[in-house]
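FAQ: What does the model actually see?

It sees only this:
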Amino acid sequence: MIKHKEQRVGVLVDASNMYHSARNLFNSHLNYKEVLDAAVAGRKLIRAIAYVVKTEGEEETPFFEALSQLGFEVNMKDLQIFPGGTKKGDWDVGLTIDAVKLSEKLDVVILVSGDGDYLPLVEYLQNTKGCLVEVLAFRKSASSKLVEAADDFTDLSENKKFLIR
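And it is asked to produce this:
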């Protein structure tokens, strides 16, 4: 895929998805600065948004502040705890709505997540909005259908610069 400096890009990060993937696969954390740099690739960054889940303890506050200092808008929601102890902090719908709204002002939507639930979003952005969609994720935990549908895929496990131990 051709990337040129005049392309307007938006980077949308499913932080919970990426946190669990990096931890489970590599016992590491994602290096968000390197991911953002790789995603933008010298093009015009219009928006970078990280979708995060806040727990009751507020221990994530330094992480959220670091994301903000890197240039991410931080969209936050509280962790839901259901009777029986099940926990959920899902941003799929919120990220999808933002992607659709932003697509009017973007040439490329960059999704940092391997979640296959985003497949209908990718297809909609490509076929209805005319946007290119790039995906950055860890190949081992990414949906193969999402990888196939993307106009470009970057496997974050291929370069150690994307991880912090």
